[in-house]
Specification:
Elements (H helix, E strand, L loop, with lengths): L2 H12 L17 E13 L5 E13 L11 H14 L2 H11 L6 E14 L3 E11 L6 E10 L5 E2 L10 H15 L24 E3 L3 E6 L12 E6 L14 H6 L1
Parallel strand pairs: 2-3
Antiparallel strand pairs: 1-2, 3-4, 4-5, 5-6, 7-8, 8-9
Length: 257
């Protein structure tokens, strides 16, 4: 398959993996902007072959004078990512790839990363960190990481921070039942009928706290083959409010019920 055919196929496949680019927040009035940094380096390999590598980083920016209180810690979380981007030597990386692969490589390689404000609730906000690219091989990649933060403490939140003690088994049971309903599966039907590798329901650690519910996102290869794309589903608070810690970051859920 030629390089242009591969890039066309990559573009089509990545279309399967960008559902979560739609965020769960109204950014009107927040005065948010995004900064993009891009760098590219090309080097001849064997014969007339050329390898070009490109890296790009897009991230949140805003006017400090108009900064809402809940965004006061965003720069602290993004700064290490920006520093790492500028610390990476693309030329050195490209030359190393050519040496390691015996110079038998060519084409357009790229790696793009986009950090957005994904959602906000009365007590939390969520950042999405999406990476996509192509570094040789049969297909490209897309990966989304969701990180939730407490607005007051600025600490990262995980599922145990949100629920009462011994919540885990019940939450998994409710989530599996809801997931099967959404996917048109019968309660006793195997998850392998939905292209899962095994008939064992795994609740993704990758999730976002939204005003409507917990949004779960599974990256490619986690529970299904690459060709199946990513999985995403919303677990509404109406089904899990009885598990919520009334003193935790989801206390607003109990008040709304």
């Amino acid at each position: 398959m030629g390089i242009y055919s591969r890039l066309l196929l990559l573009t089509l496949l990545l279309g399967l993996f960008v559902q979560a680019e739609e965020t769960f927040i109204n950014t009107k009035g927040l005065n948010l902007a995004h900064i993009t940094h891009s760098n590219k380096y090309c080097k001849s390999t064997k014969g007339t072959n050329i390898l070009c590598q490109k890296k790009e980083l897009t991230y949140l920016d805003y006017e400090d004078a108009q900064l809402p209180d809940f965004l006061s810690s965003v720069k602290e979380h993004i700064a290490p990512i920006v520093d790492k981007y500028f610390a990476t030597n693309l030329k050195k990386n490209t030359l190393k790839n050519i040496q390691d692969l015996d110079e038998d490589i060519a084409g357009q390689w790229y790696n793009e990363r986009d950090i957005k404000l994904f959602s906000k609730t009365p007590h939390t906000y969520t950042l999405s960190d999406a990476s996509s690219g192509y570094t040789g091989g049969a297909h490209g990649f897309y990966n989304l990481e969701l990180d939730n933060y407490d607005i007051i403490t600025k600490e990262k939140l995980t599922l145990p921070d949100l629920f009462l003690k011994d919540y885990n088994i019940t939450l998994h049971q409710i989530a599996e039942e809801h997931y099967k309903q959404l996917r048109g599966l019968k309660p006793t039907q195997s998850l392998t009928d939905d292209n899962w590798f095994d008939n064992i329901f795994l609740l993704a650690d990758n999730f976002a706290i939204t005003k409507k519910g917990l949004y779960f996102f599974y990256n490619q290869y986690e529970v299904q083959p690459y060709a199946s794309g990513n999985i995403e589903f919303m677990l509404p608070y109406s089904k899990i409010h009885h598990l919520v810690d009334p003193k935790g970051a989801l206390s607003f859920v109990i008040k709304s019920m």
